[in-house]
Amino acid sequence: MMDTNLTYEAAYKELQQIAREIETESVSVDVLAAKVKRASELITFCQARLRATEAEVENIIQQMEARPL
């Protein structure tokens, strides 16, 4: 379950840490599956945040374009 206070930056940092651990093989085989599962959750979270931010920005731009200067 995702932490409701998780920020994009924190999730991205955690993903980078997991990637480093896997690349340097500092993760035991027993822990690897849990790390990969967590990485998958973090990727899903980051993608959702990016999509939500993109939609918000597009909405703001549409509102700005609708208003005459």
UniProtKB/TrEMBL annotation:
It comes from Chitinophaga ginsengisoli. Belongs to the XseB family. The lineage of its organism: Bacteria, Pseudomonadati, Bacteroidota, Chitinophagia, Chitinophagales. Pfam families: Exonuc_VII_S. The keyword Coiled coil applies. Residues 5-67 form a coiled coil. The keyword Hydrolase applies. Keywords: Coiled coil, Cytoplasm, Exonuclease, Hydrolase, Nuclease. Its EC number is 3.1.11.6. One of its GO terms (cellular component) is exodeoxyribonuclease VII complex. This is Exodeoxyribonuclease VII small subunit. GO terms for biological process: DNA catabolic process. Transmembrane segments: none annotated. It comes from the Bacteria. GO terms for molecular function: exodeoxyribonuclease VII activity.
